[in-house]
Each structure stands twice: as C-alpha cells, then as structure tokens.
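Hi team,

As requested, here is the filled-out complex form for the pyridoxal-5'-phosphate run. I kept the field names the same as last time so the parser does not choke. Let me know if anything looks off before we queue the next batch.

— J.
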Amino acid sequence: MLSRVAHLESAFTDTPTAVLVTEYRGREHHLRLKYESFNPSGSIKDRTAAGLLMVMDRQAPLTPGTVVVESTSGNLGLALARQLAEIDCRLIAVIDPKTPPATRDSLAAAGVEVCHVDSPDGFGGYQLTRLERVRALCAGNPGYRWPNQYASFANPWIHQLTTGPEIVAQGGPDLDAVYVAVSTGGTLAGISAHLRSVDQQIRVVAVDAEGSMVTGTAPGRRHLAGIGASRPSAFLTPYAYDGAVRVGDAESIAVCRILRDDTGVALGGSSGCVLRACLTELAGDQPPRSPLCLCPDGGDRYQATVYDDAWLTTVGIAEEVRLAETRLRNDGLRFQNG
Ligand SMILES: Cc1ncc(COP(=O)(O)O)c(C=O)c1O
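And here is what came back:
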C-alpha cells in the first residue's frame, strides 16, 4: 500500500539562488544566496518537516486524527501544520516569546493548538523549557507523537538528500564555501555530509548566534528566532564544519536592514547572521572566491521584530543596531542585485 505521506516528497521545492553583488572594505564580491523562503510554508523547515514525518510514518503510520507535538521557534510548526493537515492529522506547537507575532498568527490561522512557555531556561533562551513542556504533554497523553527535531536522524538525512545536492548543483564548479545557520544543527549536518562526500575542498561554515551553546560555551541572552540553541547539537561533530562564526543580534539585524534598503530584498534574522558571517570572512586573509549563503527564510514574518524600530527599543538593542549600521556603512558596505 502506498504510504499516506508519500506526497511529502514534494512538500518542498528545489529553491532558487541569485547572485548578490557586495562592496565591503574596498573590494567587490559576488555571493550566491539560496532562498529557502520559496518553500511552501516559507522556510527551510518544509524540508525538515517532510523528513521527520516520512520517518515517523515508517515507524508507525500517521493515521487520521493523530496528534503530533513539537517544540519549535515557529518555522517547523508552520511546515508541520501544513503537511499534517494534508493527511488529516493535528499539531500541538510548543513555542516561546521569541516566536515572531506573524508566525504565531499563522499557526493559529492554520488551526494549530499553540502552547506558550515563558520561563527562560537559564541558557539564553527558552528551548529547554519548551522541551520540558513537550515531555510533559507526551507523558500525560500516551497517543501523542513527538518527531523530536533535535534527535531524529530524519532531520540531517533530508538535508543530505535534498539541500546538499541542490547547493552543489547551483554553486557550480567554483563553489568554495557554504555558510549555514545552526540551531538543531540538522541542516548543517546533512549538507556537510553531502558536501564531504563529493568535494572535500568546499569549506563548510557554521553560523551561530552569540550566546548560543551550539558552537559556543558561554550562554547569553539572544533575541533572534530560529538560530542558536541552549545546548549543543546532537548532530554536529567537529568534522561537520571547518569553522564557526558567531554573530550578535545587532550585527545581523543591521545587515538585514542594509540589504533591504539597498536591494528591496528582506530576509529573516538568521539569514542576516549568515550574510554577516560571510562578510567577515570575505574581509579576512583567505576570502572565499565563490561563497553560497543559505538563507533559511524571508523577512515577511519579521516585520514586527527585525524590521520594527519599536521592537528594537523594547528589547533594548535599538542603539546597538544603529551603531552597527553606521559602522558597516563606514566600512563601505553596499549591496546590489546581481
Ligand atoms: C529561520 C531559521 N534559521 C535557521 C534554522 C536552523 O536550522 P537547524 O535547526 O537545522 O539547525 C532554523 C531552524 O528552525 C530556522 O527556523
């Protein structure tokens, strides 16, 4: 019998890339951006959701009425909600105050039961509090199913199978560096497994948030959704990446705003981190010649956060963002669509 989730293989898209021409510190560079916002629910997590559900269905069929529970910063929730609705299953999404308002509204509009946690976990975020709530929900409801994006092999597997090969094909023969944001680390682990298997020379760079425990050791307050975590990744080994760059909230947001002002392209905060990390290396001693930046989502869901002055003031980083923008402009940063 054909699995009810067979259609999930087409639940995400072969996402497009475009060249971005950048001036920074007196040099011109050409970066390739891969836009995961073109996926059906608007982020890279359409891929992860499809992988997780395919594997869950293999383990025990996802029959109509099945309730799936997951901890999410928002994007995976939107992707799971969309795909579960197609097979008449239901999602309970455990989210926290960093989930952007637009994402919260979209989850509610999709009929998702949203469970908010608001106690910080003591490691710069709310991830551990969210996971505690998921465990409590599953313990009290034995029928609930938890994909567990933090531990399921399906997470890196789907990126090894899809995102990695797309990057190699689109990056072309000159591709020499790939920049990937990390939270669970699944995206990076899967892409890296593919890249390592086809070309050992392509540099893989993990882009993390300052204060995150994925590649760092000192927890700190973080405001951006989707990037960073309160504990190390279950998927990443030192072999998976050649370097890690940690980017602060203000630097990421400044880059997002400059890009939007120069080109009209609005990206999410984790993409801002990825671009910032790439710029740092482009200004370094051994700049990549043909880098690709994986952009996990677009700016649409961050209009009330990353792109909102009032929000920057509320979280106390308005001045820091203003200074970062000024500094980057003084360093000659300009973007132009290629
Ligand atoms: C916007 C955004 N960027 C980056 C990531 C990081 O992906 P991963 O969890 O595979 O490390 C996520 C994951 O939720 C995300 O939503």
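Two things worth flagging: The chain is about 40% helix and 15% strand. Strands lie at 17-24, 27-35, 67-71, 90-95, 113-116, 177-181, 203-209, 243-247, 291-295, 334-337.

Thanks,
J.
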